[in-house]
């Protein structure tokens, strides 16, 4: 089984963090390949960045289809381009916010999200409203660390632990969801300190994608996720047309 | 007052239809400029098309900011790039699905959407869930006409009328919302035949944008729609970075 | 275009405040007439007052129809008699809570309401549940100033600013909605101090009513808002029958 | 225990039907007095009628307070003036739509409402949204019989039975709620024919009001239902002021 | 009329507290019999206890049917076995959480629940979501007293009062619901101290069951609550089969 | 990794069907053991059966904990005893309705459930409301085949296919969820005929449980799923106490 894990931003060092977490979550016989988006922003910290990360994600999925990938994980917590990627893909496509939120609801009654910047909290709430039942997501909390600082700032773990502890208390939640692919290496350590399950979406995404492939559940091609109709594209995006 | 109406697809003849409807809806002293997206798909009929229409929309908004536009209307019923456009804009930005759905709830208890392709119905439902109260959108119906055929097919009006009539009956609704910018020229005729208000989002979008500018309600720059942080972009989208 | 703005309470000095805000919001060629309710309470501060303000509102709308009004604004934040007024009117009828809440969702992700008395907070929440999507209204806050004191108390603006600032912080909101027609003159000043859009429902109501008239969207007469069946009335309300 | 059952319309023959059903539902030691509204419409078939029935309801409640009533039932399925009446009353005030819907959810998973005119269906849905959990009310069906014809038209029972049977099937519901006080005498017969519980709101309202009085649960005077502040009223409604 | 009030736990002294409250709530001519569950846990403080209390509840309902009971009250705030009991019963079956929450919404706009252990708060929220409209239950608060300590601990009343007072303030609620059958004797005293209605579910359950029996509303046998199909059972539960 | 799959009913031949589907879904290195409930009903076709299946489920989970099981799947579509089982278990516990519904939302926008008896449709809807976002479950359809006939009736597959096809059309859904563990062997064949993903909850449950174990996500022991407090039990259920 071949799973492609796509880093929607264009920073290769972050792809490396993602790849490590992804590989650790895969079962025997699963090949995981991590891909950096071929175009777009260095990090995703606004609706603007997220929207402009989508072309890179779609180019990577199109390439994956040519290479015979069995499933995909989109490794940014905004799940950029998820619906469009599903139109292109034959197998399952999982966003890491989606994966983490679903997994969290399977091991506790309510979860809190710990994310990076305050301005992205709305997006996390929107995704929760789409993915899970109404009261599952009890709160979204920002640690105010820019995405690309996650890998260099030695205080990150400590701040995520402190924010997670406060969130459990304040929200009455039972599980922590890490709200950024750049936190993928923190799950086990934070869980050990807080004494609750801490879900990293990259690991959850790989494990769920593998699960869907194994039970023979591809993306439905009936209705909304059917292959897009062919048509001309113009300008810088000409290559995306047919 | 200068309002920019952006056609997110790259078909100029459709921009002309949009421009006519937009100008008819503007009050005295309002200048309406209709812009065709500078890159992307010829029409928007899938999540894939919609996602790839967003860079063109954002380029047009960025240009509008340089030109001093007071507000924007995004003239595709999927409201592509609305959140990201708001981050770029100083004044209000209105999507035509958003405008039409809000307007519809002001003149009746429930509305039905008449749109083009079956596969886009999910997107319309998602937008209704975001924009209006839970029971306002009573149904979304597709007339199965590709977007670019709207302007050439002489049977369009008849089919929209028939579908609208059936929708009013089946949904128990009181207002019809036209679910495609390419239907912008049909509103008055369909309303005359059905005897209920028929809302064209282009007209509604222009009138609402004008209303917001007049009452001094710009896009809030606190929180989610603050200006995006500057950062490098790579590849085909390099020009969107800073 | 003739718009009638109806003050549902019977205090003429408050009608004057409303009229000033209403006229400032109207475009060229729009005549705005502000009317004081011909019967009912001096101010509206309870369900009891609100219910008993409705006959006056309906009398004013009936008069408007005789005078050829193109649209109406009901200038009390409880939107008293909105559904019944729509049954009487040919053109659009907009409540100021409705107008302000719709406008607020077009310029930010979440709004807070700043209103007068604590006991009216439930009504504001009920209206939000009817008008806008579930998470748009993030909080309703009372400044504990009786309605008729708004015009005399020099500390009002300061208290509204302070309450608004606290609401933005506590609710994580991005827009302030003024929850009383008697605050119609405060919008610009409060917005300047808080740095976010502040929506006065009177201005929003006039601008939206004008927008609906311009795009040819009258109240739907199919279904719930059809003209009421004629019938006898008795007692003090005899004049409302036919 | 003294319960006042208020007929919000001004048709005394309908008060007689209501009184019979109300008395049959009261336990030993409960005195039930049925009152015809002292002003307003002959029947309630629109938002306009309903709004203008409220002053009569409030006059009757004020009189009830002077007479020492222990509780009230508002015997029109639109529950006109319920919130305002609670502000005036010391004891519990129950609307018959409220009573019937609550009772229905206690004896089945989902109910259907059988009401009079199509145009009142929206009001019934609004009340269901306020009173009961989201999926309890499975449908609202109109038999297209004007309110005052209910007592004269010998085909009413047959038509209610037929509509109820179709509703059970179509909605997958398990209980029928009668959607008009004028149907109060039909409950037992319709239930016998359909083989499911059929809830008449007048009976349910009396039984629930009695239950609340017996367990010592008056209307809460904390917050929204506190006694309204005193103030002057003018015009025809002068007598409602203080 | 014979009502059976079933204490789902196996502690007879708690049945005595329940019986006293139940009898006080019954009208003239109603015989109330309180039954201790014949098997299961001494108290119910977890999902595990609650699930294992259900066989005892069902045995008691089966016995009640043989004895001709007209209705049932399940006197544990988790309403254990409510759906299954309704399948067995001819008359109405009311859970005390259900009864209390319904009653609370009839006398105020929002209620707070004061319960025993923190871990049972999720169950109370689940029940509120099932029984009442979305914003009726404003908060669930735990006083951290084990169920069986309620009858011995002299500080209970004081702690419930303090918690209730804080809940009214924090939740903006207007009514208190007592979240444990073991608090059935506290209602009047707590209400006197807080000045708001305080609903004891045992009293509310008896009064509502009596109301339903009196208006002729049995459990619907159409659909979900039809008599269960006969079949063999094995092991310790053999006696529950047929 | 050891996963215990518990058949909550007491029919061993159905356990065999479940075991086959479960083993086919497990990855390399995962040992799957299928267990028949040691007490309770031969099949689960009512709330009564379901409630009385729970003691057997809990006995099996307690045994699994003694045997060092890493995770559990509850193989009945009503997910009987899920919350209580989580209190007992260290690792994850997944119900098959839960697993199937989550998996379905990952491969399509809306799913339809095809189940056995009409009377169980309400339970399926309740579970959907708890597990997934509001519009994910588009319909629940019954093929009217008793559970234990599934294995003997040669027409089952044909009827499930026909019902599934109608459901896709009527509900506008994109995925089919099989609503009974006894249908576990039908997934692939039905999917081949309908051309959409068909989710068998047993396979989905095993794959998800394995995924959660692999990413280190046990049941949270903070809050609602903490180990139940020890206490005495009496009667037939004495052995469940401590």
From TrEMBL, chains A, B, C, D, E, F:
InterPro entries: Asp/Glu/hydantoin_racemase, Hydantoin_racemase-like, Iso_Racemase_Enz_sf. It catalyses: a D-5-monosubstituted hydantoin = a L-5-monosubstituted hydantoin; D-5-benzylhydantoin = L-5-benzylhydantoin. It comes from the Bacteria. Its EC number is 5.1.99.5. Pfam families: Asp_Glu_race. PANTHER family: PROTEIN DCG1. Belongs to the HyuE racemase family. This is Hydantoin racemase. It comes from Mangrovihabitans endophyticus.
């Amino acid at each position: 089984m071949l799973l492609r894990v796509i880093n929607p931003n264009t920073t290769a060092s972050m792809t490396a963090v993602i790849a490590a977490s992804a590989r650790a979550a895969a079962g025997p016989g699963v090949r995981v390949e991590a891909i950096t988006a071929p175009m777009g922003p260095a990090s995703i910290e606004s609706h603007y960045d997220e929207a402009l990360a989508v072309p890179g994600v779609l180019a990577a999925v199109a390439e994956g289809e040519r290479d015979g990938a069995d499933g995909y994980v989109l490794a940014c917590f905004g799940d950029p381009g998820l619906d469009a990627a599903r139109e292109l893909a034959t197998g399952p496509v999982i966003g890491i916010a989606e994966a983490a939120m679903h997994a969290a609801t399977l091991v506790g009654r309510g979860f809190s999200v710990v994310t990076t910047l305050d301005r992205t909290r709305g997006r996390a709430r929107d995704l929760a409203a789409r993915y899970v039942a109404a009261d599952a997501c009890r709160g979204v909390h920002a640690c105010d660390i820019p995405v690309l600082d996650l890998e260099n700032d030695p205080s990150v773990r400590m701040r995520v632990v402190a924010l997670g502890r406060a969130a459990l208390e304040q929200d009455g939640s039972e599980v922590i969801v890490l709200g950024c692919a750049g936190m993928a290496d923190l799950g086990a350590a934070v869980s050990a300190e807080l004494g609750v399950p801490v879900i990293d979406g990259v690991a959850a995404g790989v494990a769920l994608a593998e699960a869907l492939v194994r039970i023979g559940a591809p993306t439905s091609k009936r209705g909304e996720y059917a292959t897009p109709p062919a048509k001309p594209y113009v300008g810088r995006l000409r290559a995306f047309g047919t």
